[in-house]
Amino acid sequence: MKSGLFKKTFLLFAAILAASVLVIELSVTRSVRENEIHSLRDSLDVQAGLIARDVRFTSSSPLDDLAAELKSIAHARVTIIAADGRVLGDSDHASSTMDNHRGRLEVEQADLAGSGMAIRTSDTLKTDLLYVARKIVRDDHPQGFVRLSISLSDVNASVRRTRLGIIVVVVSVLVVMGLVVF
């Protein structure tokens, strides 16, 4: 009789432990993801400011070659956007074929606050991308925006590794507890 009660109590505690770990795991992995994205955002914002020093927003020719050169330095896609939203240069696509970017969330935020960010799933890459735009102002006149984007696949992989580590530890603890009890 005592053995049956003990087993039921063990199973109840195991279920409570598993539920608690699930809640903790979701919280920890969300926090890890948010921290990594925040760090990437800050880094890209600083890089955009540094990159902007080499950009002539008044150039009459496309700035695609400059954007491609800057991409090799920043290790991120570079888009140079005029104050009215026209794409002046892009490291990955011909700027002349691109839509006006004035309505993009990160550009709108940058126009209001100096910098902005957005996370969107790329239809082409099928992965989350982090977009960070910075408003460039010279002599109190808005020149345009420099936008950098980077895949969040490394961040997502890090979250998956953290999640897997937590699951392995919990399953191990439950197995050891089960062996000790039985």
Kindly describe this structure.
It contains 4 helices and 5 strands, in the order ααββαβββα. With 182 residues, it is an alpha+beta fold. α1 packs antiparallel against α4.
Short description:
With 182 residues, the protein is of the alpha+beta class. The chain contains 4 helices and 5 strands. Helix 1 runs antiparallel to helix 4.
List the helices and strands and how they pair.
Elements: H1 2-51, H2 64-74, E1 77-82, E2 87-90, H3 105-113, E3 115-121, E4 128-138, E5 141-151, H4 153-181
Antiparallel strand pairs: 1-2, 1-5, 3-4, 4-5
Q: Specify the overall morphology.
A: rod-shaped
Order of helices and strands: HHEEHEEEH
Return the average pLDDT rounded to an integer: 88
Structural class: alpha+beta
- Give the neighbour order of strands across the main sheet: 2-1-5-4-3
The separation of the N and C termini measures 15 Å
Number of distinct helices: 4
Number of β-strand runs? 5
Radius of gyration from the alpha-carbon trace, in angstroms: 24 Å
Largest sheet: 5 strands, antiparallel
Strand content: 15-25%
| Fraction of residues in H or I helices | 40-55%
Uncertain segments are: none
Relevant terms:
rod-shaped; about 180 residues; alpha+beta; 5 strands; 4 helices; single chain; 5-stranded antiparallel β-sheet
